[in-house]
Structures are given as structure tokens and as C-alpha cells.
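Here is a typical sample entry:
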Amino acid sequence: MPIADLQHSAKQIANFLNSVIHLGGLRLKYRISASAPPESAETDGAQILNVELAGPDAPMLTNRGGELLRSLEHIAIQILRLDVREHDLVDALNFKALRAQEIQLSAETAAERVRETGQPFSFPPSNSRERRMLHLAFKNMEDVESASLGEGQERYLVVYPKGKTHLPAPVPVMPSRSSYGDRGNRGDRGDRDRGGRSDRPRRDSGYSRR
């Protein structure tokens, strides 16, 4: 679902971040901008908001698999009444781009393992966004296919040899919290789916278009 009023939404997010930064005594600054969505986004070509966080306390956001960063993003998306599965709103220190590269490499490695062994491979439980990124990676591979199994925070993705989803999937290795941070989505149910320092915080509430 696209954002109907970008300027009003940007103001809402700025107010939220100002409160978090002030009440938390965080050394953070932010920039809110608008840009065209990525090709994989389901926003019908409408522009989307991007929030970039920086500052001395930014590494705190990306620790433990980006747990705090994703929590802030989840609240921001709820404030705008958007679908958390369709919007990638907040980033810090290029964390998400680096994570996307890791996921693509993991997909390629898993696919090669499945080709060599002829057996399914199970990833550790992960959140719905990362599972979707894996599904998209495997969609471009002709000889393997993927499916999600399990429920809630234990939901995980399995990659199979093409046409062999009847094979039993191995039990996934459970990750530590620091590995995956925001694991799962409590509303994501079902058995299978396809497919610098100063005394006061520095704030940049500017809204710009890219």
C-alpha cells in the first residue's frame, strides 16, 4: 500500500524520532527523504519514504542483528498504518544493504548444497521480510524452489530440489538472538507459503526528494 501523503507522513516520523532521541538521550541524527521504490516493492510505482539514522549511537541500532533498528522501524510503520511486510522504511550505517548481500550469498550457497546432495536445506528461523528476500532469490533459480514452514517466531524457509517439495525437511538450527535480531512476525502464521558527540542530540528533520 503506497503512502498517500508523503509530507504529512514525514512529519509524523520526525515527531516520533525527535521524541525517541530526546527521551533516550541518544546521540543520533536522521534524514527523511522520498524516492522511487525498488523493483520488488508492491507500491504501484508511488514514491516511498526513506529514513536514514546516523551519529555516534548509530552502532547501537545495528547490534544484535539490527534488533533495535527493526523495532524503531516497526513502530514507525505502525504510526503510518502501513503493512510491515511491504515497507522498508528505516536504515542505519547501510545495515540493510549489507544484510541483503549476506542473504543473497546464503541463498546461492544453500542452492549449491541442494544441487550437490539432492536433499532439502533448512535455514534458521527468520522474520518474514528476510524469508521473502530468500524466496525472491530462489525464484530466479530454475533447479530449486523454496517454501516456508513452521509458525510464529519459529517459521523458517526450506529450499528443495525443483519438484521435490515432498521430501522431508531437516530440522533447522536455531540461531542466537544476536544472529537474527527481529525473528519472525507474530501475525505471520500458517504451514507453508511460496514463492559525531555533542551535549544535545543533533536532529535533521529535513524532508527532501531524491
Observations:
- Residues 34 and 49 are 5 Å apart (CA to CA).
- The longest strand covers residues 29-35.
- The two ends are 20 Å apart (CA to CA).
- The beta strands are 29-35, 48-54, 90-92, 121-122, 144-149, 156-161, 207-209.
